[in-house]
Amino acid sequence: MVRDGSAAERRFEGRLRSLRSAGHRITAQRRAVLRALAMMGCACGAEDVHARARRIYPRLGLVTVYRTLAALVREGLAQTVQLDDGRVRYELRDDGRHHHHLVCLSCGSIARLEACALGRLQSAGLRRGFRVTAHRLELFGYCEDCQPSGGRHEAR
Amino acid sequence: MVRDGSAAERRFEGRLRSLRSAGHRITAQRRAVLRALAMMGCACGAEDVHARARRIYPRLGLVTVYRTLAALVREGLAQTVQLDDGRVRYELRDDGRHHHHLVCLSCGSIARLEACALGRLQSAGLRRGFRVTAHRLELFGYCEDCQPSGGRHEAR
DNA sequence: GTATTTGCAAAAGTTTTGCACATCC
DNA sequence: GGATGTGCAAAACTTTTGCAAATAC
């Protein structure tokens, strides 16, 4: 990847700046984690990020990955995603915008879904005095390549 | 609790019957787990279920709770909920109907939200060839008793 | 009577913590 | 130079597995 002045590169530098202005120091390890996250698309486990980031900074420890991911989440630069396996997944936030996930029950693929139709639910929360500031939604089912024949899996 | 012919009690017996007809045996342990789940409302961790069910069947092991919960989920009688702490939560499904959760970021309380406005998202998935059969949604924010003064927490 | 279930102990897997050393600003 | 960050090893936590004894049907 050429480190030109592309939009992706500007976003990368912006995230570094955000981290720095939040009082964190910029180290080679954190650059590596951030770059790995940016290259990997959505919903990666810490171990995956570690493997990818090690190709950039080989001495990187898994512990540092966890600590960096926690910092990114704390500063609002990344967010967690929880699927059905017991592990926490991470992804960068794209600043303002916001997406959900289509998780295929057959092949496990995870695709982004940009639509967000939660307005009605948010107001249902409000009506009960609950101020909604965040939400998490995952849609499960079968992707185009995995349309099942039977009807074994029902809606949850 | 009086084991009368109330609606709750009929639902309890119905769940036992479902388990049995799915080929599982009905043991005192499974009765205790099921009853504990029914009494506890939504989104309880396995450890909580264990503690509650032990008041009914004191010798109950945690392992049995895990195995029973897994069986209930497999048979569609219960479902899992994943919040931000790393543990899996369980709740009984109320047969057909379907609810989401309002999770207070301040006090941690979890309330049921019966509304479901996912139609638009489901069709957005379909448009991409993805057949949505299940979803999971959690709304986070502040409950009536915990309305914050500042604006520290933004939407995710 | 036989297959299923249980409980214990131990294992597995992910995530966190303590601490000495290194590094950023 | 001093606070912050890193890596290792070990701990903490939830969840799973192996196995002999107990139990449902």
Automatic annotation (TrEMBL), chains A, B:
GO terms for biological process: negative regulation of DNA-templated transcription; regulation of secondary metabolite biosynthetic process. Its cofactor is Zn(2+); Mn(2+); Fe(2+). Binds 1 zinc ion per subunit. Keywords: DNA-binding, Iron, Metal-binding, Repressor, Transcription, Transcription regulation, Zinc. InterPro entries: FUR, Fur_C, WH-like_DNA-bd_sf, WH_DNA-bd_sf. Zn(2+) binds at residues 104, 107, 143, 146. Fe cation binds at residues 98, 135. GO terms for molecular function: DNA-binding transcription factor activity; transcription cis-regulatory region binding; zinc ion binding. Belongs to the Fur family. This is Transcriptional repressor. It comes from Candidatus Segetimicrobium genomatis. The lineage of its organism: Bacteria, Bacillati, Candidatus Sysuimicrobiota, Candidatus Sysuimicrobiia, Candidatus Sysuimicrobiales.
